[in-house]
User: Fold this.
Amino acid sequence: MNDTLLDDFERPLRELCTDDSLRAIEAGASTDALWHAIDALGYTDALVPEEQGGAGLSLRELFALVFATGKAGLGLPFGETAVARALLAAAGHGERHGAGPIAIAPGIPGDAGAIVCRDVPGGALAQQVLVSWQGEWLLLPRERAAATPGAWRPQASATLQWHTPDLAVARFDAGAADAVALCNALHAAGMAGAMARVLELVTDYARDRKQFGRPIAQFQAVQQELSVLAEQAHSATLAARLGCSAVGMRPDPLLAATAKLRACEAARSVCAIAHAVFGAIGITEEHVLGLYTRRLHEWRAAPGTETQCARLLGQALLAQPDGLFDFVRLRLSAPALA
Assistant:
């Protein structure tokens, strides 16, 4: 993706995702107009093949768009929708394009044959959820699910439960697609974007806020904290690029887990430092910082969690005999471009 195309997406996105509009959505305002405006930009079909009306991009190229949505604070599942539309198109369900935002989630068994998707970011705002269930993808209407509000964003995210798989409006073989790996890669990219925005907010504030007649950014203790925050945010971005470095649309599960684990670890430091620099003002409803840090904590708790990602990496390391260096060199490097 070239800079001109990316700018054509980022510029209107910034205009649509103002601080006021983000607060309104978090408070339960309708997202229909916002989604229609974003969908009209034409990037939600970025992964759909050109012969089916899309742009034919890879997940590697989608990274920049998902990063931009995280930086803009968009609470709707943009990256998940782009991947879901591509999967649906590949399975012959492309006629469902334009049906609204689609979340992606792994399903787990509930009581009496129910399907449960825990802690789905943007799950309360999506119109449909593409659920990985027993070797298949099920496209389930969100309005038919019983929803439990999310802990961090109760109006935007939710745990969803459908009482039967028969509610699916489309179903097809999952093939090699891994819902957790897709979520890890996409969430890591969104988290990297959100941390980049937090870094901007904190840096600007430290330059403007004065104590004892000079900006607090000139105090050595604050500079130390800002440097740690920047280091964590940029390392998360590099890891997220690695997690999305797929030639097609399916990420490598180990790379995606590495990206999500690094993003989760970085988010803890980034959120703590940001609120420490801002002081009490950063946790008020009026300030936008809290919108980003709540989202970061929400992503940390979404599948796969830090523990799940660390366990996957640990098991893969123990299963190969060549030692840590060769594991990192051979298994955790980006695939070569064709």
